Amino acid sequence: MDNSNIKSSPAAAQDTKKSGGSARTKMFLRMITASLIIRRSRMLAALMSIAIGATILSGLVTIYYDVPRQMGAQFRSYGANMILTGADGAFTQEDMDFALSQLGSAEVVGAAPYRYDNVRINESPVVAAGTDMQQASAASPYWSIEGELPASSGQIMVGAKIADSFRLKEGGYVTVTYTPELETEDGEVTADELMDFEITAILQTGGSEENYVYMSTEDIEALTGETDRIDVAELSISAGSGELSGFADKINSGSDAVSARLVKRVTASETTVLTKLQALVLLVTIVVLALTMICVATTMTAVVAERRREIGLRKAIGASDQSIIKEFMGESILLGLLGGILGSVLGFVFAQEVSVRVFSSSISFRPLLVPITVLVSIAVTGLSSLFPIKSATEVDPALVLKGE
Amino acid sequence: MFFRMIRGTLLRQWKKMLMIGFTIALGTSLAVAMLSVMLDVGDKVNQELKTYGANITVVPKEASVISDLYELEGGESSGAYLREDELGKIKTIFWAFNIVDFAPFVNAQATLPDGSEVTAVGIWFNHHMELPTGEQLDAGVVSMRSWWEIKSGSWIDEQNGDENTAMVGSVLAEREGISAGDTITLTGSSGSVSVKVAGIFDAGGDEDEQIFMPLNTAQALSGLDGKIDSIEVSALTTPDNELAERAAKDPGSLTVSQYETWYCTAYVSSICYQIQEVITDSVASAVRQVADSEGEILEKTKLLMLLITILSLIGAALGICNLVTASVMERSSEMGLMKAIGAQSGEVTGLVLTEIFITAVIGGAVGFFAGFGFAQIIGHTVFGAAVSLSPMVIPISAVLVVLVTLAGSIPAIRMLLRLQPAEVLHGR
Amino acid sequence: MSLLELKNVYKIYGQLHALDNVSMKVEKGEWVSIMGPSGSGKSTMMNIIGCMDKPSQGEVLLDGEDISKKDAKSLTTIRRDKIGLIFQQFHLVNYLTAVENVMLAQYYHSLPDEKEAMEALERVGLADRAKHLPSQLSGGEQQRVCVARALINHPEIILADEPTGNLDEANEKIVVDLFHKLHNEGTTLIVVTHDPEVAQVAQRMVVLRSGKLSKEVVNEHFTGEISYAD
After folding, report:
1. Which end of chain A is more exposed for a tag (fewer CB within 10 A), N or C?
2. What is the structure's pLDDT at A13?
3. Which of C47, C53, C95 sits opposite B8 (nearest CB)?
4. Strand pairing partners for B421?
5. Measured between beta carbons, which residues in chain A are less than 8 angstroms from residue C89?
6. What is the residue range of A56's domain?
7. C4-218 has which fold?
8. What domain count does chain A have?
9. Of A212, A235, A262, which residue is a domain's last?
10. Using one digit for the tens of pLDDT, what is the confidence trace for A332-365?
11. Which residues of A touch B314 (CB under 8 A)?
């Protein structure tokens, strides 16, 4: 496009000395926008490639920062990463509440108190665990539960091995016997406590949990007559291993009754795997970004190279090299700006989409990423068009116009 | 003449063609790198997840129900054992290649000189074995307890010969005042041994109260020669699906073809089934905590990489497309001239397409190797292992390059051909 | 029968009558120049005769065949077989050598034949420059390559659009001399130009003004040599 014929003559510029500066700016803006608007399809293509570059930049960086958080949540499926035990034997609900209060704002996925008592089924000894069923299954997401988690009093969940050996089935009933300490203080023999339970679920884990029966804390308290005792509590907390050991230290120094330990197997392994995953995403981001930026650069080079004739024409009608570079750079920077803004939006949409699809949770918006994306895309488009523009201005206008 | 012209373009216009070739190479390398990493990331992450330890445990059939129950009473075992001499067979099952590591366990009750009871566990640390197939193998818990923190001393090196060594859990060591380098005497049900403490470890669990020693030493303590209590197996598995769940309950409920599919897929349930086939009177079961979580994390990682790959493929495609379009548009006057001196549209299209395709093939080939290189860099940096080349990558990236190049050039060529040659030649 | 005949040809772009009821004939072996200021319809006429455009109205008979209603594909074929084009801006393919540029025309016409192409270059006096790229040739040399390219398929008509527009006087003379030689060999020449000196060399000069034929001058002292006024 040749807009140069509208250019105000030096004489006219002198006449309007006051508004001369703004007239020149107006003309400059008009020239760069006219080129963008009139060469619409080519510029759209260039804009698209810049926007894609910016999308990849902002999208991948967002994902990179979000991966530890999102993946960390996935790793909670390995179950508890912190165990609370009594400093000497058991501890109480109050101690547990204290421990939980030390966790600050960290998200607690599950916090299950357990107490274990020896009971008997069909006269065979069995360990019964009393717990908060909802919390227990939240803290141990890998539990494969057949049936419904016990929700009310009188319901019980049976480990698969127990179910196997006693031929218990979901929906059946079982009588649980508890024999209190054989001798009370005054030497009397107390009678066995009996309680009937409906079996609502069979638990499969492939681990020792299959050898227990699970009932609510209230039921086990009713059965044994002993209240407010917790043997061990399993906590599943969304936090890195450093943070976790901080919590453990806080709990241990804050309370004498309860001691917190990290489940090394879970925390150490999580750190290893997460570090690798984040490194993976980082490297992928770098490779993809580098290649995309080069792609954007070649596109810009091609776009400018295409316009050698126009540059020759502008020179022929008297434009200085500097003003040509300024005009074309103005155009590139405008493209970079638009592409960067578009890319920031699309990148966030992409990251959001990934997050929802992969982790089914939404992503937090990082406002800082917008100016960074815009600046990077302006820098890339600007730099990559600077060299071809410079080389184009060095060409003899006559040669260009003769139609090479 | 056709080739002379193409040669002319490629040799004398090489700068322009180089740029197209370069962009195509970049795009291809991006596609190849991402596809290779994506297709291999499952295996790699799976390998990493092995740090969580065994995902299959094998116990004797009778013991599977009763031993734990009786143990509660007196700590005596039920009398059902697996056979040590069958251990090597685990490496002979259909999915032997997927068995990353395994270790036998035998528990013995022992008394320390001061009379306190401890559990002594006999295991393989880094046991060297030669399989009937002629294969050599090192197996043991060193990699299956990667989370153990060695407080002092070091891991036991079985291949160094000395059997009378042990590793002591940190809690027990503290209570009994044992430190690395000490010699302690343990008395078991059928004899006593003096073992040198090679190291103190912190496992963050019940194991901190136990003593670990080579299998034979623990067997001698309790008179269980050639017998083992359980086997932990760490295997690379495919996440379970509905078929695998059904099969896990009862393999008999499957049709023949379903059974074949199940048996020949590395589901944790089919590997368990195959282990039961080779170990006499055994029950192999999945450790859900590990197996299920593995599946979950693998799936998420794969999906994440897939989406990133798609994004970068779109980026690469648009980049190539743009440049090809630009380079075709640039040649408008040449195409006008060819039409003016009598070329039919088809001939011009054929010429331009051939040129671009030769460039694309060269660029694509270069890009392929570059991309594979990128994938290796990623693999080595992140996982410390080479990323394997999936044969699928070659056709996918080839099709991508062809489609993208076509999509980039054909619309531009068509547009230019619609122009009157006179208009192009007169520079409009 | 005339080789080329335009019967009441119109070319209308919206309001603009680029060609307005033009009729003319060109006989075989004739050397005709078409003159006129810019905007007179010269280029439009050249495009129509050169089968690169179609008239809005009227008939164009080439060798007795009406080409005004043909589709683009058959126009390309006719152009390839019967017309040799020479442009003001040469339009050589810049990555092909001189001889290859000549062969390009053969290629689209029938079969490329390097020997024949070399002969054509010899005729225009460029045999020794055959392996040079256009960028290594002077303007006059480039135009002579164009002439060789136009000749190579033995066209019925050579159609030159401002062939000397980009050339200095010495090269202009070389090209006009070349035309003279071609004319003597019996080639039909139509030269579109606004340069009166080049136009006056021809046997007949047709002047266009605002799309209409304004005047026809027959050169009674035809020598085929260019002569300069001062």
Report:
1. N
2. 41
3. C95
4. none
5. 402-403
6. 29-72+273-401
7. Rossmann fold (3.40.50)
8. 2
9. A262
10. 888 899 999 999 999 899 888 888 888 888 887 8
11. 52
